[in-house]
């Protein structure tokens, strides 16, 4: 029951991020989604009573709930990023598209990869929805920082699949992936600074020097 | 044990690069280090060929003959790029396009980049392969955006964003793989050797879905059309030695990752599923890039699209299956890396001298810079598969096995597109090489390190098809046996 509610929370946060019109709302949405993910892995770790899963849970909390959102907020403040997200698709259409994507994910998990177990099935459905919604955010949000958040939502979806469906990846791989996420975000942050300095904006749709 | 040395040398070099000292002398030292790496790679291949057993250490590092082939290709191209960097970076420092500090950063990043590429084929675990490939993106993004100009930062941003999305999809595929391996196969491990042992028990429909994610995900990094959009930007903005590495060896490392998954699937459901996907993406990449090569006006983008084309040829070779076709595809990885490096080096010299990327502006290279001009036109013939150059032999291997294997339609298309690319490439490159040089431009020779780098590449592309050393042929055959799962 509790697990079902948490899964639902992850999906709701993905939708909330689609509806968000402001950068701070987007970062909050990611933090909340990561927190639900943290609760879920904590329950899984507690059930299996595995030290490795506890370590993964702690790292999830440190990286995705604290470090990454804080870093992104700091970057946004430092470059005085415009709060407006530059939606190329308006919120109503975005919402409808997100609902459609989730429905497709639902069909996909039900028909094509049928996995036994109710929890596994809904976890895979929600992870696939989050991944697709993340991709959608990356395509339709024109601010460099919003694209980073889209990537992170995708990553959250993938993590959900790894944790719930396959019972966690091998330990060393999990750790390496966390390290990797942290590094991606920091490096993308550095490039946001560079774009801001050279172009005096972070609108990705105005990066049009290269053609052909 | 050679693989530890192969990884430690670039790691140590990247540390030494930032120590105080002259960048030029470090450049020589750097090239020497990568020469040792290339020798070690040959030694590793010889060792593995003798024992015919994969070398595995600590349950983490792993090298079989397929890895050895990739290690060999990567380290040879690394060495030549390091050699070429000496002259390229010194001349940048001399005309103050680059500060001494920046040059040090270049060498540190160069070595980190080579380290991440070399770590892809030496780990035993599909999860770590994923991490290593993501690291190659992160490090090379700095090398793409190295000059901090508007265009280069834009290219770096696109590169890192598009490839990260791709690689995230590949991770999803990896998880599905792991799921069926642990539930149906009963092995909680991402090692392909463990998975291959239980491949018969895996769930075919999950494997098929997983492989789609893998091909699209890693295919983004490999430059398959339609996920190739980052590639021309990144390759045209990077420094010339880095363009050579990106195009010659980075793209094939992503193909290597796809191959490792494909071998497991082939054992479970036969080769036709993966083969068809390889052929589909190969032909699509080949066809679209053939058109784009024809209309390019920017010399480095021209070469970038030619990389997409060659990845297409390699993928078609893998799709045809059969030892001969796969050996041809692997041989083409090597030949393409050598010929493309040659062309990127020559084009890089031209871009610097004429201060423009446009084929319209670069004219009369043969009189303005006779050495590089000659190399560029010879490289164009070598790259498009004219005899006696080595790419001719690898392409003919693929085409013959296509026709004999019953893939008449695909092989005919392959021949047709290769002919289009040949005409387009020679047409565009000859406009730059011949003609009148701009008035008032003085002729310029090539620095010694550049001459050496060109010379070695020339030697490789002229001889590899005809008098390749015996161990190299054995290596190709053994590697293609591994891919077929024999």
Describe what this molecule looks like in 3D.
The complex is a heterodimer of chains A (212) and B (486). By secondary structure, chain A is mostly helical. Chain A has one domain. Helices cover 79% and strands 0% of the residues of chain A. In chain A, helix 1 runs parallel beside helix 5, helix 3 runs parallel beside helix 7 and helix 4 (91-112) packs antiparallel against helix 5. The termini of chain A are far apart. The model of chain A has no long low-confidence stretch (mean pLDDT 86). With 486 residues, chain B is mostly helical. Chain B has 3 domains: 1-124; 141-270, no CATH class; 282-486, no CATH class. Helix content of chain B is 78%, strand content 1%. Chain B contains 19 helices and 2 strands. In chain B, strands 1-2 form a two-stranded antiparallel sheet. In chain B, a hairpin with a 3-residue loop joins strand 1 (55-57) and strand 2. The interface between A and B is large, with 38 and 51 residues.
Class by alpha and beta content of chain B:
mainly alpha
H and E order of chain B:
HHEEHHHHHHHHHHHHHHHHH
The Rg value of chain B, from CA coordinates, equals 21 Å
Q: Give the radius of gyration of chain A.
A: 17 Å
Profile the largest sheet of chain B.
2 strands, antiparallel
Number of helices of chain B: 19
Instruction: For the record, give the distance between the C-alpha atoms at the N and C termini of chain A, rounded to a whole number.
Output: 53 Å
Mean pLDDT of chain A: 86
Apparent shape of chain B: globular
Q: Tally the helices of chain A: what do you get?
A: 7
- Find the structural class of chain A using helix and strand composition: mainly alpha
Compute the number of strand runs of chain A: 0
Shape of chain A: globular
Number of domains of chain B: 3
Return the string of H and E elements of chain A.
HHHHHHH
Question: Total number of β-strand segments of chain B?
Answer: 2
How large is the share of residues in beta strands of chain A? under 5%
- In helices, the fraction of residues of chain A equals over 70%
- Identify low-pLDDT runs of chain A: none
């Amino acid at each position: 029951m509790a697990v079902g509610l948490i899964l639902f929370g992850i999906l709701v946060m993905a939708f909330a991020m689609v509806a968000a019109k402001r950068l701070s709302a987007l970062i909050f949405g990611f933090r909340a989604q990561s927190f639900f993910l943290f609760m879920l892995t904590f329950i899984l770790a507690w059930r299996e009573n595995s030290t490795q899963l506890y370590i993964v849970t702690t790292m999830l909390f440190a990286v995705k709930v604290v470090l990454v959102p804080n870093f992104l907020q700091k970057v946004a403040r430092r470059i005085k990023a415009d709060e407006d997200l530059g939606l190329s698709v308006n919120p109503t259409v975005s919402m409808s598209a997100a609902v459609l994507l989730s429905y497709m994910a639902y069909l996909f998990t039900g028909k094509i990869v049928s996995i036994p177990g109710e929890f596994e099935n809904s976890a895979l459905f929600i992870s696939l929805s989050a991944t697709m919604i993340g991709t959608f955010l990356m395509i339709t949000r024109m601010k460099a920082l919003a694209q980073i958040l889209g990537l992170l939502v995708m990553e959250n979806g993938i993590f959900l699949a790894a944790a719930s469906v396959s019972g966690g990846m091998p330990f060393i791989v999990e750790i390496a992936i966390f390290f990797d996420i942290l590094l991606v975000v920091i490096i993308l942050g550095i490039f946001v600074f560079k774009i801001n300095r050279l172009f005096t904006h972070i609108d990705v749709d105005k990066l049009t020097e290269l053609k052909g | 044990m050679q693989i530890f040395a192969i990884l430690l040398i670039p790691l140590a070099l990247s540390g030494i690069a930032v120590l105080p000292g002259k960048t030029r002398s470090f450049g020589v030292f750097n090239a020497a280090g990568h020469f040792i790496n290339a020798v070690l790679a040959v030694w590793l291949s010889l060792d593995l060929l003798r024992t015919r057993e994969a070398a595995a250490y600590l349950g983490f590092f792993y090298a079989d003959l397929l890895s050895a082939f990739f290690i060999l290709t990567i380290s040879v191209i690394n060495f030549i790029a390091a050699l070429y960097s000496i002259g390229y970076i010194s001349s940048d420092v001399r005309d103050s396009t680059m500060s001494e500090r920046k040059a040090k950063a270049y060498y540190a990043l160069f070595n980190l980049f080579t380290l991440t590429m070399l770590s892809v084929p030496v780990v035993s675990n599909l999860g770590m392969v994923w991490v290593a490939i993501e690291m190659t993106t992160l490090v090379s993004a700095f090398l793409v955006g190295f000059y901090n100009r508007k265009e280069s930062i834009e290219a770096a941003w696109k590169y890192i964003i598009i490839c990260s999305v791709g690689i995230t999809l590949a991770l999803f595929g990896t998880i599905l793989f792991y799921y069926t391996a642990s539930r149906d196969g009963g092995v909680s491990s991402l090692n392909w050797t463990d998975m291959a042992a239980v491949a018969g028990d895996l769930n075919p429909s999950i494997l098929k879905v997983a492989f789609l994610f893998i091909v699209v995900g890693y295919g983004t990094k490999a430059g398959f059309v339609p996920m190739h959009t980052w590639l021309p930007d990144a390759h045209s903005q990077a420094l010339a030695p880095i363009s050579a590495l990106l195009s010659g060896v980075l793209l094939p490392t992503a193909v290597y990752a796809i191959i490792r998954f494909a071998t497991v699937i082939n054992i479970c459901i036969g080769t036709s599923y993966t083969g068809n996907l390889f052929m589909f993406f190969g032909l699509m990449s080949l066809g679209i890039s053939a058109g784009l090569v024809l209309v390019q006006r920017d010399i480095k983008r021209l070469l970038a699209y030619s990389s997409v084309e060659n990845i297409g040829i390699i993928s078609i070779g893998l799709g045809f299956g059969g030892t001969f076709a796969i050996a041809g595809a692997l041989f083409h990885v090597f030949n393409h890396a050598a010929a493309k490096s040659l062309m990127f080096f020559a084009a890089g010299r031209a871009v610097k001298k004429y201060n423009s990327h446009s084929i319209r502006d670069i004219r009369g290279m043969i009189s303005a810079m006779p050495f590089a001009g000659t190399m560029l036109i010879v490289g164009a013939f070598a790259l498009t598969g004219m005899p006696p150059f080595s790419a001719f032999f690898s392409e003919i291997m693929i085409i013959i096995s296509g026709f004999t294997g019953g893939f008449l339609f695909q092989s005919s298309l392959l021949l047709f597109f290769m002919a289009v690319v040949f005409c387009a490439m020679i047409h565009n490159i000859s406009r730059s090489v011949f003609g009148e040089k701009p008035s008032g431009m003085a002729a310029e020779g090539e620095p010694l390190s550049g001459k050496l780098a060109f010379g070695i590449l020339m030697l490789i592309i002229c001889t590899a098809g005809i008098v390749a050393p015996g161990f190299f042929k054995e290596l190709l055959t053994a590697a293609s046996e591994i891919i077929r799962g024999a």
